[in-house]
């Protein structure tokens, strides 16, 4: 499989906001509420980000996103 990992600049501000809220929230339902979207919409966004990063799990997505500098796991979202 020839998979090229996308660079950090290929992710939108909204993608970064979603990732940051996932790190800070105790669960996905809370993250969705903070983002003002439904759980289902959040799940679709997570799935899309996972595909772009080549991640198989949400945990792996967070690790890969952190390695790419997409999120700072120590920072809380500004809109919570």
UniProtKB/TrEMBL annotation:
InterPro entries listed in its UniProt record: Sig_transdc_resp-reg_C-effctor, WH-like_DNA-bd_sf
Name the record gives this protein: HTH luxR-type domain-containing protein
Protein's organism: Glycomyces tritici
